Amino acid sequence: MDACTSVTHPSSCSSAFMGHNFQRISHSHCSVAVKEEAVTWRLTAARYASSPKRRQSLTYFPAPRLAIRGAATKPSKSPAEEDWSIKRAKLVEKRVRSVDPKEALRLQNENSFVILDVRPEAEFNEAHPPGAINVEIYRLIKEWTAWDIARRAAFAFFGIFQGTEENPNFLQTVESKLDKDAKIIVACSSGGTMKPSQNLPEGQQSRSLIAAYLLVLKGYTKVYHLDGGLYAWFKEGLPAVSKE
């Protein structure tokens, strides 16, 4: 058994396990209950000495059978967690263009493009382009499953008490606001890039590029990406409003 694993005898377990031949094992990643079978087997050993032959019957329990209860198991990988190289290839295949902030403003004003701001709601409320729609692709962790509790603890270990998770309702919310033929410019804080460079031969992914990837997978065909993100938008002094 691993060094980080401890076993508690049934007599010290909670009443929920009393009377059921369960032992609890506490591991660094999960809690395991161990059930001892009621089956026994006998080993008869013959002892020979100067006195007449004697037989001694010894009874043993077999190795316990493990039954895992409520382990903190990570959910299966979602499309948003796909490798960046695969996301980038799909974005290039679907001809997702990156536009700078001034070009994005022109497209918004002259060609009916909608800016889809995928930052957290709190950031959107502080400042955003006029007319932008907010659907956060990542949200504050809301659930309390074993996996979510483990993730909260991991964030807290690094001093981060506002940990985020993928928003499972992202696409559903976008579909309720924008039709499949809508002209969309996806924006986040930093923007990321699909352009290769010496240090980043495959570019660098961002929340907006991940969102663009999810949108093209869903069938949206007119998806652009804000190069430089909203940081560049605000830095250039382009229009911005706040939501109180």
From TrEMBL:
Identify the Pfam families for this entry. Rhodanese
Can you cite an annotated GO cellular component?
Answer: chloroplast
Q: Which InterPro entries match?
A: Rhodanese-like_dom, Rhodanese-like_dom_sf, Str14
Segments forming domain Rhodanese? 109-242
Give the source's domain of life in one word: Eukaryota
Q: Could you tell me what this protein is called?
A: Rhodanese domain-containing protein
Upper lineage is: Eukaryota, Viridiplantae, Streptophyta, Embryophyta, Tracheophyta
